Amino acid sequence: MAKTNVEEYVDVKTRNIYNEKAENKSLKKEYGLTRDIIEKISKEKNEPKWVLDIRLKALDTYYKLDNPDWGPDISYLHIEDIATYVKPVEKEVRKWEDVPEEIRDVFDKLGIPEAEKTSLAGSGAQFDSETVYHNLTNDLKEKGIIYTSFDEALREYPDLVKEYFTKAVPIHDHKYIALHYALFSGGSFVYIPKHTKLDRPLQSYFRLNAPGAGQFEHTLIIVEEDSELQFIEGCSAPGYNELNLHAGCVELFVKKNAHLRFSTIENWSKNMLNLNTKKCFVEENGKIEWIMGSFGSKVSMLYPLSVLNGEGASCEFTNISFAGKGQNLDTGLKLIHNAPRTTSVVNSKSISKDGGICTFRSNAWVKKQAKGSKLSISCESLMMDSISRSDTIPVDTIETDDVEFAHEATVGKISDEAIYYLMTRGLSESEAKALIVQGFAEPIAASFPVEYAVEMNRLIGLELEGTIG
What is the pTM for the complete model shown? Predict the structure, then answer.
């Protein structure tokens, strides 16, 4: 099978905990996108006919849609060269010690089981195309909370899944969400009943281990009325000299007076195309918080959409991106204010070095019925040299005069004077630059739970050293 070439800048010899590889003992591997492959996946998972119908409709849609005609060039992606389904284990387990040793060792080094013991209400782990582990504390199960893999949810709660699946993100949304729906495998399903507030987060971790493979997990979260949830997803992959693809999907539903904080640390390897799609519907007085850190990947195209459908609904969006050599991170968000007195606050930061490209795109639509709404967007970019690039591309549609709207963007380079000043205080030039970058990123890091703020700072340090694969 011929593979798509990846630039020579990918350093497969780089070693850190994120670059650990498990010996490939995949039971099954399928390449490309055909009806036969989709039917095999569906049969393997023992899915009902309505799920297979969605997959086949998505297959047809994928081949009808064109690549995006804006943003980074991804014309070199040939789906026939991608291992679109890689099954690493025979079945999902509930006990960590039952996960195969070579897979467990990778997650152990990433700290997944330790985090579950110390700070989580439940955790899940996906390796390549399948979930290998999911667990929720017994006290939360007794409250009617559901946290399981998406595949198991289709088997155990088919009516509940069917009510929401594809309802936030439709199959025809764009070419790569159609690809996702044709091939989706793994992911997480969360249901929080009314009047239920979790005091500890749930976490799902997605690891793409196989070279030249794709990952297409689906996450579906429903937070019912007067409930609260913190959900964290982590993503990583080791570096290879073959193109990898991530085209996951997240569908979120935040009901009346509910609150969802959705945090993501993405640390894909720099041979990865990250074409993820996320969308949230928010009802009356509900609140969605997005907290996102985008590191790694050759190309990222990610723009979470928040639809504020109920009066008083709100969105807070906090994001940081770091692009180094050979990276093009095209990120941002979309907002629809669909009801009166809705509120959005956006704070985005980006860092680029060694010729890296960061682009922030925002698309805000305040409809005429959204009177009394407030929208504030702030975008700050820091370039560490003269060969890097940072762009801000806002599109704002305001259909009512009764609105408070502000959009500001700043772009700057690290000051030679600031570096010189810190060097006179005993720091080396590299230490001075690192201190300035950490200070720039600190407000974003403060939004993450403590353990993940530490991880974000570690990733920034690795990026500054150029040691993330």
Answer: 0.91
